[in-house]
Design goal:
Elements (H helix, E strand, L loop, with lengths): L5 E7 L6 H17 L8 E6 L6 H11 L3 E6 L5 H12 L5 E4 L11 H9 L4 E6 L7 H16 L8 E8 H7 L9 H8 L3 E6 L13 H15 L2 H29 L8 H33 L6 E4 L7 H5 L10 H4 L6
Parallel strand pairs: 1-2, 1-4, 2-3, 5-7
Antiparallel strand pairs: 3-8, 4-6, 5-6
Helix pairs in contact: 9-10
Length: 345
């Protein structure tokens, strides 16, 4: 079998602290894979700048001029990790036999990409990178993560346990992924839905090289809620079940009140009345809010807005590297993307 063309897609958001080391490690590693004959010398690394506010894009752009394997994709604004990842996957799929997605902090062990390629050559279209254990996580993060996977399983969502977004996908798998047109994409749940031949590769997760995580508790909760509401209607059914149970108990309570009145045991008071009003009112507001979340998702889907807009794409620039480095003689045939590139100094 011919050596496959591999592209490594790296979503980036304000990663200036870790990016120099990330670029260096991935570039050296990809060079080793080429020398070993594991991947083609046409393989690339694509860094996707998700609207960063620091020097992330400048670093990526300079590296793309300096290193033949490095390319950059600049999005017009911040669209979130999942959409930025999609932008990279869809940009590279036509020029790649397989694509590996990995986070910029390199906590995921890049050495298992060798196993990814081996599994790909054995015929697997999707290879999941799965953590063996969570020793590097805090107790809180470990507990909440495990709770999230169990909750998603309870909701009927098929997830690969302890898998995030470190995976290999073949061009065939990416073609199928592109057919999922919904706006509210939750890749960890959608990729298993593709149903093509898949397998797991296990690895130990490392400490973050530098900088801070881009997924604090608030974003993690939002991400989890989006995943649940994008894949399951069980929460709405649970609300209906709570409503039915409340109605049943209210009937029993009504019978009790009538019985007490008949036997002359009623007492005037407001405590039980106020408690009942607050309880039922709270349940109603929760139900309305949950239903509203689903309605909001339907509203977003109906608008069919693009998931991302590409500002600059150096992966598909139709010009040679010699022309990119010669800023003095710009020809009118240069693409608009090239004229938007920043100065290198």
């Amino acid at each position: 079998m011919n050596t496959p063309i591999l592209t490594i897609v790296v979503p980036c958001y304000n990663e200036e602290d870790v990016l120099p080391e990330t670029i260096s490690q991935l570039n050296v590693f990809l060079g080793q894979l080429e020398e070993e004959g594991i991947v083609s010398d046409k393989s690339k690394i694509l860094f996707v700048d998700d609207g960063s506010k620091d020097q992330t894009w400048k670093m990526v752009y300079k590296a793309s001029l300096r290193e033949k394997r490095v390319r950059g994709l600049k999005l017009s604004k911040n669209v979130g990790h999942q959409n930025a990842l999609l932008a990279g996957l869809f940009t590279t799929k036509e020029a790649s036999d397989c694509v590996v997605s990995i986070d910029a902090d390199l906590q995921d062990d890049i050495n298992v990409i060798r196993e990814f390629i081996q599994k790909f050559q054995e015929g697997f279209d999707i290879v999941y990178g799965v953590r063996r254990k969570r020793d590097t996580d805090t107790f809180f993060k470990k507990t909440t993560a495990q709770g999230f996977y169990k909750l998603m399983q309870f909701m009927g969502v098929n997830l690969v346990y302890n898998h995030a977004d470190y995976r290999l996908m073949s061009k065939r798998a990416l073609d199928e992924l592109e057919r999922f047109e919904e706006v509210n994409l939750f890749l960890r749940g959608i990729v298993p839905l593709i149903g093509l031949n898949s397998t797991n590769v296990y690895y130990d997760r490392k400490e973050r090289l530098a900088g801070e995580t881009k997924y604090p508790l608030k974003k993690m909760l939002s991400f989890s809620f989006d995943g649940i509401t994008s894949f399951s209607v069980i929460p709405i059914r649970m609300v209906m079940a709570v409503g039915c149970i409340s109605f049943f108990f209210s009937l029993l309570f009504g019978i009790y009140i009538l019985g007490s009145k008949y036997f002359g045991h009623t007492e005037t008071g407001w405590t039980s009345l106020i408690a009942s009003i607050w309880l039922i009112g709270g349940l109603q507001l929760m139900a309305i809010g949950l239903v509203g979340e689903y309605v909001g998702k339907i509203y977003n889907e109906s608008k069919r807005r693009p998931k991302f807009i590409i500002d600059i794409d150096t992966f598909n620039l139709p010009m040679s590297r010699k022309l990119i480095n010669s800023r003095g003689n710009q020809d009118e045939s240069y693409s608009a993307d090239f004229r938007k590139l920043p100065e290198t100094n």
